[in-house]
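dude i think i finally got it to work??
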Amino acid sequence: MKKRFKDLGEREILALAVSLEEEHSRTYADYAESLKNDYPATAEIFTHMQQEESEHRRALIEEYRKRFGEHIPLIRREDVRGFITPRPVWLMIKLGINVMRRQADVMELETRRFYERAAAGATDAGIRKLLIDLAEAERKHSAIAESLEARHLGPDARKEEAATRRRLFVLQIVQPGLAGLMDGSISTLAPLFAVAFATRQDYAAFLAGLATSVGAGISMGFAEALSDDGSLTGRGHPMTRGVVCGLMTAGGGLGHTMPYLIPQFHTATSIAVVVVFFELMAISWIRYRFMDIPLWRSVRIVFAGGLLVFLAGVAIGLVGKVILGG
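look at this
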């Protein structure tokens, strides 16, 4: 059972404050450690905030020893009603630099309100003064963080961090997603249109496209996830890459498969061809936008590959139709 905040005594308030400051200090230290290679300027900000929290903890421990002795009971935020349950630090680190910055703001606001409420109920003048001072310190933390950000994140550092974010996004999301989209959109053309032109049956073509898309999605997802663990390449968590690649592969194939739910072969095929056109344009644009490949060159290469696979599928389908008809 959690204890109500109003039922906490001054001894418990100080013990809880020590626990909060230690938690924040370790959190900021973890943030700084995770960012020091890719975002050194922001890591420096979190290091400074970690040092501030350590100093607050030292002051709280000193006050506690003067009032209540050496033993400080372990009272944590999860033992008291009203506190927000924070996301695990490892998850915040995985979610990225902007999420860590927002979480730091939430932590500072929550701690400031805690100190203000605790000071309002304190009867000891020394404890009340300490809590009021800490509340004011937490209030100033936002301004301190902003000033540190202005100092450490100059124009060059901001450009460098923006370039790093873009590079990591390309490595961890765009590249596996693009590989999946290309495989799903292009490699499934041949089996889909081969079955479509061989049988002239919409349902048969739909089943062929569905099976090919789902199978390719599973295969590509596992292949990407097992390619490397990202520790040396910086490509991120293999599971994330595998899911992105697998979903994009399946989605790329299903895009031109779904029209064959229409029970009219010529209409379904016409719509499927239009869908393929937009899929290839999307692939060309992504290569241009994130891979710095000239747009016209990207269009030529992608459409040439897509056209060859499409013609191969149609040719195989027509040959199959002749054989089946014979």
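The two ends are 79 Å apart (CA to CA).
im so relieved honestly
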